[in-house]
């Protein structure tokens, strides 16, 4: 019988957001705000982001200026900035401001990330590996962001650059397949069997 995971275990469910079709509010443009925006734009150059901050560094302004869809608002956070947003990231250096942003966002049923308080996060920003169409997100359940960074670096090394060619080729084959769902699944499984064969053999040997 399968054992169910304990409630304290990792219950995160990863999803891949099309942030170019969503509006994100980032509050705070310090060290952390800069890091969050640069990772967001690296992965999604067309992300729609509004940044509210009491001050902006030259570095932050330069990063924002390089993207078409980043708007900067200089001044303190106000609840009205949540209007029309889907996702909120609170990254000010004041815990009580971040908490206020969290509470306002929850009142509006928005998804919120509070950079200094994992317990208040609806989602975490993860480490990200991108190889063409393949994207891998890494989280340590909020326990060790440094480990997420190291795993990201490791995967960047070991996943071959040409994995995207494989995906593109299989996609072309997929487009040519006629027939019902079951037939397609079967054909694609047969084609890609070799990709996991080694792992399967190892598993079989373990048993
Ligand atoms: C919960 C989470 C919330 C969120 O931000 O979404 C969070 C929270 C906190 N981070 C802190 C510290 C650091 N964060 C990093 C780096 C990253 N942090 C990222 C994500 C997350 N950080 C989310 C969980 C992700 C998961 O589940 O694993 C990454 C993966 C992605 C990204 O930033 O977009 C990115 C690496 C990207 C890459 O390189 O690939 C480094 C290392 C470095 O910068 O070199 C340090 C210093 C070393 C250390 O502490 O480990 C602190 C303490 C602050 C303090 O002490 O003041 C808190 C608050 C707390 O834990 O209380
Ligand atoms: N999640 C993560 O990866 C990490 C989170 N942190 C936490 O993130 C928080 C921010 O850290 P830093 O960026 O280093 O601080 P910082 O002092 O460099 O930047 C804070 C920014 O918030 C702005 N700000 C302050 N009050 C504001 C308000 N009322 N309205 C709008 N903007 C406001 C400031 O103008 C500044 O741009 C800290 O609490 C820190 O503990 C720190 C390291 C990593």
Automatic annotation (TrEMBL):
Its EC number is 1.3.1.76. It is an enzyme of class 1 (oxidoreductase). It catalyses: precorrin-2 + NAD(+) = sirohydrochlorin + NADH + 2 H(+). GO terms for molecular function: ferrochelatase activity; precorrin-2 dehydrogenase activity. Coiled coil: none annotated. The keyword RNA-binding does not apply. Keywords: NAD, Oxidoreductase, Porphyrin biosynthesis. This is precorrin-2 dehydrogenase.
